[in-house]
Amino acid sequence: MSKVKPIPDEYPRVTPYLHVQGAAEAIEFYKTVFSAGERGRMPGRDGKIGHAELEIGGSMIMLSDEDPDMEAYAPGHFGGSPVSLHVYVEDVDAVFAAALAAGAKSLSEVADQFYGDRTGTFEDPWGHKWHVSSHVEDVPPAEMEKRAAAQMQG
């Protein structure tokens, strides 16, 4: 009998689990915006999604419809979410535009950042905040320190 691995090979160590109102629509949004692949879904109550898994690049998110009986609440239940997700993408401008076209709200437009990324932030239609970035410049530590100080001074 082989020993079961405590961390399955096909799962990363940290996996965000998102609860939304409208998981089926959220899955389609993530497929459109991030080219997410759906690993599977399990039905929940009343035709809702009890659990789903999506791959985004080499990462994964799990999600479900909100279910108060399971204490699984969407961000709207709390007036928003204090948690945000960061995703590196090949073309941040294209991904950001796709998110807005699919119904996301811009929180900060895509712009070059002092630390070498081109980044934008949006809120998806279910209240989750996403930072999307493409790395555009390798910034040496001394230069990073200078740029950070300049950024703090305005």
Could you walk me through the main structural features you see in this protein, from its secondary elements to its overall organization?
The chain has 154 residues and is of the alpha/beta class. 23% of the residues lie in helices and 34% in strands. It has three helices and eight strands, in the order E-H-E-E-E-E-H-E-E-E-H. It has helices at 23-34, 92-101, 141-153; strands at residues 17-20, 37-43, 49-56, 59-65, 84-88, 105-112, 117-123, 129-135. A hairpin with a 5-residue loop joins strand 2 (37-43) and strand 3. 23% of the residues are buried.
Topology of this structure?
Elements: E1 17-20, H1 23-34, E2 37-43, E3 49-56, E4 59-65, E5 84-88, H2 92-101, E6 105-112, E7 117-123, E8 129-135, H3 141-153
Low-confidence stretches: none
The whole-number mean of residue pLDDT values reads 95
Q: How many H/I helices?
A: 3
**How are strands sequenced across the largest beta sheet?**
1-4-3-2
Strand segment tally: 8
- Rg value: 18 Å
Distance between the termini: 63 Å
Q: Approximately what portion of the residues adopt beta-strand conformation?
A: 25-35%
Reading the helices and strands in chain order gives EHEEEEHEEEH
Basic shape = globular
Based on helices, strands and strand pairing, what is the structural class? Answer: alpha/beta
Helix share, percent: 10-25%
Please summarize the sheet with the most strands. Answer: 4 strands, mixed
